[in-house]
Amino acid sequence: MSGQSLPVIDVAGLGSGERLREIAAEIRAACTGPGFFYIRNHGVPEATIAAAVAAARRFFHLPPEVKVRTRANLAHRGWHAAGGAVMAGATKPDLKEFFSLGLDLPADHPVVLAGEKLRGPNQWPAEVPELQPAMEAYYAEMMRCGAGLMRAIAISLDLPEDFFAPHYTLPLQRTQAVFYPPQPPDDTEGFGVAPHTDFGCITLLWQDDSGGLEVRERQSGEWIPAPPLPGTLVINVGDLLGRWSNDRFASTPHRVVNRSGHERMSIATFHDPNFQAPIDPRALGAAAPIYPPTTAGGHILDCFAKAFAYRKGA
Ligand SMILES: O=C(O)CCC(=O)C(=O)O
Ligand SMILES: [Fe+2]
């Protein structure tokens, strides 16, 4: 294991002009370097996090025959049982289970009526009534925090500060509470989450104090720990921002092995743009695009089709 550790960026004052530029410079260094960084002073209330974690934990402890009543639908909302996710190149499914929500659009919203994929209302279990308000409050905080980060990221990519805002009017942001069972100490093959890159633009991750998240160092290829640091969130670049930025900011592989001896929880939020957002490296200044244009939704659907058993044949 190398002595490298990931940068911690203080994002207090992200809304003000001068601080925004300083933060953008730190984010540029992190995104062209390890592709992972921590943020502190993000403004997400501890109580909002604690309520979401407590409600999600109660849900995960329900018997499977109850959880399955909110089994994930084709809009990716609801409970994903363990065994349903296989990361690219992995030989076994992940050990994790997770509960996913997105932007809650009523069935009569124009984009739902138009048949846009991944859209629709969220699913909620009657048995844990506090899950909905707790996760919705957390989701809203991630939207606020993610939008601030995207302003800094725009500047760090030499774009106008509000470049991304018009592409986030009906975001595909997904928040997933994730539950990891303890792994047997002699298990050398199983992963909570096998090595992967995230599909979306940026990920905002809260993790409990178990540890287990590891990030692949770009130069050495070594796995370095991204340990829990109180009061922080872990931020990383996903494939969609890699693609959009023509790999100026490339996604970094990471994995989770829960060696803590007890259950682990995290909440991952993929702060992604509108389904129809055009993902064309030329729009971000690339003269020689590595990637053909696509849409955010098209890219996410391709990734989902490869990773998730529930979508096979969808
Ligand atoms: O739980 C974690 O620490 C990371 C989860 C993760 O990498 C993911 O859900 O994409
Ligand atoms: Fe990930």
How is this structure best described in words?
Keywords: Ethylene biosynthesis, Iron, Metal-binding, Oxidoreductase. It catalyses: 2-oxoglutarate + O2 + 2 H(+) = ethene + 3 CO2 + H2O; L-arginine + 2-oxoglutarate + O2 = guanidine + L-glutamate 5-semialdehyde + succinate + CO2. The protein is an alpha+beta fold. It has a single domain, classed as Sandwich (Jelly Rolls), CATH 2.60.120.330. It is 26% helix and 20% strand. It has seven helices and 14 strands. It has helices at 17-32, 46-60, 64-67, 110-113, 131-156, 239-244, 296-307, and strands at residues 8-10, 36-40, 78-80, 97-102, 174-180, 193-196, 202-207, 213-216, 223-225, 232-237, 254-256, 264-271, 278-279, 294-295. Helix 1 packs across helix 5 and helix 2 (46-60) crosses helix 5 (131-156). The N and C termini lie far apart (42 Å). It binds 2-oxoglutaric acid and fe (ii) ion.
The portion of residues assigned to helices is 25-40%
Order of helices and strands: EHEHHEEHHEEEEEEHEEEEH
CATH topology: Jelly Rolls
User: In percent, how much strand structure appears in the residues?
Assistant: 15-25%
Which small-molecule species are bound to the chains here?
A: 2-oxoglutaric acid, fe (ii) ion
CATH level 1 class label: Mainly Beta
Radius of gyration: 19 Å
- The tally of structural domains comes to 1
Return the structural class.
alpha+beta
Straight-line N-to-C gap: 42 Å
Please tell me what the overall shape is.
globular
Number of strands: 14
- Main sheet makeup: 8 strands, mixed
CATH H-level superfamily title: B-lactam Antibiotic, Isopenicillin N Synthase, Chain
- Which architecture would the CATH scheme give at its second level? Sandwich
Q: State the strand order across the main sheet.
A: 1-2-10-7-12-5-4-3
Mean pLDDT score, rounded? 95
Residue ranges: pLDDT <50 for 5 or more in a row? none
* Number of DSSP helical runs: 7
InterPro entries: DIOX_N, IPNS-like_FE2OG_OXY, IPNS-like_sf, Iron_ascorbate_oxido_reductase, Oxoglu/Fe-dep_dioxygenase_dom
Pathway: Alkene biosynthesis; ethylene biosynthesis via 2-oxoglutarate
Cofactor: Fe(2+)
Catalytic activity: 2-oxoglutarate + O2 + 2 H(+) = ethene + 3 CO2 + H2O; L-arginine + 2-oxoglutarate + O2 = guanidine + L-glutamate 5-semialdehyde + succinate + CO2
